[in-house]
Amino acid sequence: MQETRRRILDTLSTGPVSGPEVAEELDISRAAVWKHVESLREEGFEIESRDDGYVLASVPEFGAGVAYELDAPFDVEYHESIGSTNDRGRELAVSGEGEIAVLADEQTGSRGRLDREWASPSGGIWVSLVCRPDIPTAHAPIYTLAAAVATTESLRDLGVDAEIKWPNDILVDGEKLVGILTEMEGEADRVSWIVVGIGINANVDPDIVPETATTVREQVGDVDRAALTRSVIERFDEYRANPDEVLSAWRELSVTLGQRVRIETPGGDVVGDAIDIEFPGTLVVETADGSTRVSAGDCEHLRPT
Ligand code: BT5
Predict the structure, then answer these.
(1) Pocket of ligand 1 contains residue 118 by CB under 6 Å
(2) Which 8-state DSSP code applies to residue 117?
(3) 208 Cβ below 6 A of ligand 1
(4) Residue 281 phi/psi, 5° resolution?
(5) Counting CB atoms within 10 angstroms of each CB, which of 9, 39, 77, 247 has the fewest?
(6) Residue 199: left (phi > 0), alpha (psi -120 to 50), or beta?
(7) Measured from the CB, is residue 124 less than 6 Å from ligand 1?
C-alpha cells in the first residue's frame, strides 16, 4: 500500500481528526487528503465524516484490507473476480513490475498443474506472488516449499490440522485444502521471475469444491481472510530467504515422509518409501534398488506393504 495512504489510515484510526489536521500531520494539501479519503472509501474502507472530523470505522474484510498492515515488500492488486491470478501475475512479471501479490475473491479460469481445472468460488483466498529473486533456475522449487510451509503454519495457527503432501498440496485427513502452482521464466542460470500461486479453500462451502477437497469453513468455521493472507505472505517472505529453515519446517509438517509412495515421473513410476527432502525440493525415495531422488511428478500415498 502506498505510504501516504497507510499513514492516513493510521491517523484516521486514532480519530476523530479533521482534514486540516491530517494535512498538517502528513505535510500534504487538504485537497490531497480529501482525494485519498475518497479513493480509500472506494476500496472499501469505512471512513465516517463527523462534525469533529474523520474516523476509520472499519477495514475491508479482504481485498484492500490485506495491504493495510502487510509487513512484507509486496504491493497488492485486488480483483473481486478474475480469470486466473497466476495469468495476471505472469502478465505483470513480463511487463517488468516489481514484487506484487495478485489477489482475488473469485477466479473464473484458474489452473492447477498441467492445465488441470482448479475450482475457485467466492470466499476463497486465491493469490499469486510475483517474485524477482536473484537465484539460479534450478533452485526455484524451494519457493513452492516455502509457500507450502508458510501456508501450513498459518493454517495451523487457526486450529486447522494441515499437513503437506509432496510436492505442492496441503491436506487435512487426506482431503485437499490448498494447491500451489509455481511458474517461472529465466535463462539457464538466472530466474527472471517466479509466480507462486496459492489457492486456499477458505470461507467456502465444502459442497462447491471437488469431493476430494475440504475447506477451512468445514474444518474450523470462517476465518479473517485478510489476516490469514497477510500471515501467509509475511511468512513466505521470511522463509524464501532461509532455505535451510524451509527444509526443516517442511520435514516437520509433511505427511509424505515415512509413507510408501508411488510417483509418476516422465521416466516411469517410482515406488518406495519417502525418507527425506533435499534442497531445492527433491524427494528421496528408498526403492527396492536403493535410494532414488525425484524432483517432480504426481505423488500417491500407498498403504504400507
Ligand atoms: C494444484 O494443481 O493443486 C495447483 C492449484 C493452484 C491454484 C492457484 S489459485 C491462485 C493461482 N491462480 C491459478 O490460476 N492457479 C493458482 P494440481 O496438483 O494439478 O491439482 C488439481 C486437482 O485438484 C484437480 O484436478 C482437482 O482434482 C483438484 N481440485 C480442483 N479444484 C480444487 C479445489 N478448489 N480444492 C481442492 N482440490 C481441487
Answers:
(1) yes
(2) B
(3) no
(4) 160, 25
(5) 39
(6) beta
(7) no
